[in-house]
Amino acid sequence: MTARCTAQSQDAGKPQPVKSMAKEANPDWEVATIKASDPNDTRGQDFFMRGRRVALRDTTVRQFLLLGYGVQKSQLAGLPDWAIATRWDVDGTPDVDGQPSLRQMQGMVRKLLAERFGLQLHHEQREMAVFALTAVKGSSRLSANTSDPNGWLQQTTREDNGRHVEELKNASMAELAIILQYYVDRPVLDQTGLKGRYDFHLQWTPDDAQTTAPDPPPGLFTAIQDQIGLKLERVKAPADVLVIDKIARPGEN
């Protein structure tokens, strides 16, 4: 699930930066309303944060699972048809002040699934087609970030004249693998063997992009190798699969 995330607050009519949630916080939902999406609403799927408000629009249970657990569709088993087809709108606020990090937001989505959709699941390891994220031998393109080894990832995503630009600060290799997973069709496993945290700047031309740039950047796979000295290799390997034991439609409120 690719999400657009924005955050803003108001003070005397002027936008102010939203303070980050405490790193050790494990937020739940203070308030969350869920209702079936309006089929006549043409805005499409969306995810955003404004102040303390968190909203997910036109989103299926399968997409909640992809976001909350950071997995691919091939890593889900046992979903009923309605969980793939029926779309929901969620509006709510966390029970902790501040803007949640990616990991904290994922935790909130997992709690929403358990508390409001009655999700029960178990994990299995199954061999499947995956991408292995590995380091290119002799590459020196990685930029280490030593500002806060216990800090959280900062992510900025934008589109620019048909180019996709992804900037990550203070990201681990495991976090990079999760984010790259949004742009490919199979799970991405971190097999770099690299510890620590890094800054990444990636720009590439998506396969379906319409660009008028005179010198457009390469596709994703070439960009990963040329710009940050890593590569994605197609392999078969054991990967985590979420097997759904129970899930139900929520009572709308």
Give a brief rundown of this model.
With 253 residues, the protein is of the alpha+beta class. It has 2 domains: 9-121, no CATH class; 127-238, no CATH class. It has helices spanning 61-69, 81-85, 102-116, 173-181, 220-228; strands spanning 9-11, 14-16, 29-36, 46-50, 53-60, 76-77, 87-94, 120-135, 143-144, 154-160, 163-171, 188-190, 198-204, 230-246.
Question: Could you characterize what this model shows?
Answer:
19% of the residues lie in helices and 39% in strands. It has 253 residues and is of the alpha+beta class. The protein has two domains: 113 residues, no CATH class; 112 residues, no CATH class. Helix 1 crosses helix 3. The protein has five helices and 14 strands. A four-stranded antiparallel beta sheet has the order 3-7-5-4. The protein is globular. The two termini are 25 Å apart. The N terminus is likely disordered. InterPro entries: DUF3738.
